[in-house]
Design a protein that fits this description.
By secondary structure, the protein is an alpha+beta fold. The protein has 20 helices and 21 strands.
């Protein structure tokens, strides 16, 4: 749809007036319409929930949905938001997959609406939105539980608190403050948020893990039918992304630890619930700088796409800063020694330990990782010139509408990333505190399947470092992993009859996948490939073909290395989203907003005499197009498209129309 400039300004003004009138969500009980129950195993845990009618159109109306909050006791109020979506078919109903985005401090609603959730937001007229089922949503293969954590992230909260948000910086001010004269009304809004008290959230991954274990105790005890049957291969799966490279292993280890405590009688079985973990998946995870950081200068200069972000001198200096005395490696080891000696439970409460670890993080980030930024390309996709506005942030407008807020029962406005949570984790140096690979190795030894999934255009948690994690993990595990996993060759990941989505090395319960033509948020770039890998990991099938296998004897065969070269696609078109100005808007566009020269349509900045509504994120099926919303693929042959990956097969699957990273350093 095209509008002439006069009409577009009137539309934008009307939208802003509507925002002004409806900034504070209606918290009246009759509007929220939540049912509150007490956990049957712990009277101190409360669950408030509802069916979110109309908030997310799934593939089938019969799919169960719940949104709500689990309130757990502690030193501060903790109300953890969840969104449960039932699987699309009965076979997939016997598994439960928990999805966590990273950050730290980033909401899993980002994953829900832009990556692998059951639906996505599309335009439905001028400044109107609706949702459509996502073809490759992961509810295709499992029941899904999306959790906003730690406390105060996304729709999770401690105490609902009125405040103001500056959209040019995403800064939130408590209490509400008058709009600065330098800002237009469109860029400064009042709303209801968490308290933004940094003491009312976790500050380490270990403390976050404890909170989520308690949260799941409340959820699974209140909805026992959602806890997969015992002794089934399709049990509970934990998949996490980015900072989830730390969340996933630590949270899963906590669950296994608590299962042991239940089993030996230290903790009563009648007051706790067993979380029967079947698999852990990590999507472009930053797991351990001690292993991954040396691959930053390599990825910046010697990646499979032939893109040189920095010159060899700059890369050499970055590499040296890891190894020199007093450099990144030494500081990480000093941090971990301090944690081991003075804060072994990783509480983040010992200030001198946190100081040492924060210094390590700052050194590794500044000297080893960030030289790449000289190139002006996205940390999340080496093909994208900054600002990188993919995936689109259209959903940010939708989830802040009064209709959506009432549908899920929230009394909060939504923000994608909580800066106070970011700061809490930075202040303890959580990024460098702990060696994560031993936890993954323990999970592997316990029979838990571990799938490492890495898009090969990502820089910040790149696939080269991910591959190094997989080899370190195999070396740390018991049995024959140390020799058999590196000896397994790379096999093609066959997505359908015509497309190879990447390559995988798999032995036993461990797999590492390089996904072709995917940036940091793999399910957003290559949805079909991401889904097939996910489904094969949770089912214990061949990640290469989808075939049923005997994991005790299976290994892939093929080349020893995954070094195929591909063509780097052109930088995608860019969209400036009003609710993601720091991540998606250029300096010129920010100046336009600041000087009130442009206008917005469907949340996207428009300039000039005419405007077009932003292109949709998806193509809605017509009567002549059939979209299959169920089913898994099992290969019987290898497509010819795998013969020449230099062609960049699959690059066209990326639907780049907008959005961007909310925080340049902390990854979602």
């Amino acid at each position: 749809m095209r509008l002439n400039c006069v009409n577009a300004v009137l539309v934008a003004t009307t939208t802003l007036l509507r925002l002004v009138k409806g900034q504070f969500p209606n918290a009246a009980p009759e509007v929220l319409n939540l049912t509150t129950i007490t956990s049957p195993i712990d009277p101190t845990i409360k669950i408030s929930y509802k069916v979110p009618d109309g908030a997310c159109n799934t593939a089938f109306e019969s799919q169960t949905q719940y949104t709500g909050w689990v309130s757990i006791p502690g030193d501060f109020p903790t109300n953890t938001f969840f969104w449960f979506v039932g699987a699309r078919d009965q076979q997939a109903n016997s598994s439960l997959t928990i999805w966590l985005n990273g950050g730290p401090g980033s909401s899993s609603m980002f994953g829900f609406f832009t990556e692998n959730g059951p639906c996505e937001v599309v335009d439905n007229g001028t400044d109107k939105f609706t949702t459509v089922a996502r073809e490759w949503g992961w509810d295709r293969g499992s029941n899904m539980l999306f959790i906003d954590q730690p406390n105060q992230v996304g729709f999770s909260y401690d105490v609902p608190t009125n405040g103001s948000i500056d959209l040019l910086t995403n800064n939130i001010y408590i209490p509400p403050a008058d709009k600065p004269n330098s800002l237009p009304a469109s860029a400064y809004l009042n709303g209801t948020f968490s308290s933004m008290n940094a003491n009312h959230t976790a500050n380490t991954t270990e403390t976050a893990a404890v909170a989520i274990w308690h949260m799941l105790q409340g959820f699974l005890s209140s909805f026992p039918e959602l806890n997969p049957p015992k002794d089934k291969v399709l049990g509970v799966n934990l998949f996490s992304e980015s900072y989830g490279g730390k969340y996933g292993p630590v949270f899963a280890s906590k669950w296994e630890e608590m299962n042991v405590v239940r089993g030996n009688g230290t903790m009563s079985n009648s007051t706790t619930v067993e979380i029967r973990l079947a698999s852990v998946g990590i999507v472009n995870g930053c797991v351990d700088d001690l292993i991954q950081a040396p691959y930053y200068p390599i990825m910046a200069t010697n990646n499979p796409y032939g893109f040189s972000a920095i010159n060899s001198v700059r890369a050499g200096a970055a590499n040296a800063s890891f190894y020199i005395s007093g450099g990144c490696r030494d500081l990480i080891n000093q941090c971990r020694s301090a944690v081991s000696g003075q804060d072994p439970n990783n509480t983040g409460s010992i200030s001198n330990v946190s100081s040492v670890c924060e210094s390590a993080y700052n050194s590794c980030t500044t000297n080893v990782m960030l030289p790449y930024s000289d190139a002006g390309h996205s940390l999340y996709d080496i093909s994208a010139v900054l600002p990188d506005s993919f995936p689109p942030r259209r959903y940010l407008e939708y989830v802040n509408t009064a209709e959506f807020q009432a549908a899920i029962g929230t009394n909060l406005n939504y923000t994608e990333t909580n800066s106070q949570v970011v700061e809490a984790f930075v202040s303890t140096g959580d990024y460098e505190r702990e060696a994560i690979v031993p936890k993954l190795a323990s999970l592997l030894d316990a029979g838990v399947r571990v799938g490492l999934i890495y898009g090969d255009r990502d820089y910040i948690c790149n696939w080269l470092g991910g591959e190094a994690i997989s080899l370190a993990l195999a070396s740390s595990a018991t049995g024959s992993y140390a020799s058999a996993f590196p000896a397994a060759g790379y096999a093609p990941i066959i997505v359908n009859d015509t497309y190879i989505g990447g390559v995988v090395r798999q032995f036993g319960n461990l797999s590492f996948s390089r996904v072709y033509q995917a940036g940091h948020f793999v399910p957003a770039y290559q949805p079909a490939t991401a889904f097939e890998i996910f489904a094969r990991v949770i089912r214990g099938d061949s990640v290469s073909t989808g075939e049923i296998i005997d994991l005790s004897t299976y290994n892939t065969t093929g080349p020893a290395n995954a070094t195929s070269s591909l063509n780097l696609p052109a930088s995608p078109s860019q969209t400036c989203w009003l609710r993601d100005v720091p991540g998606s808007c250029s300096d010129e566009q920010q100046s336009i907003i600041l000087n009130n020269k442009g206008f917005t349509v469907n949340g996207a900045l428009q300039t000039g005499s005419t405007a077009s509504t932003p292109p949709p994120t998806t193509v809605i099926a017509t009567s002549t197009t059939t979209v299959e919303f169920t089913g898994l693929f099992t290969a019987t042959a290898t497509p010819s498209s795998g013969a020449n990956p230099k062609q960049g097969a699959g690059a066209g699957l990326r639907l780049a129309v907008g959005g961007g990273a909310a925080v340049a350093m902390w990854v979602i």
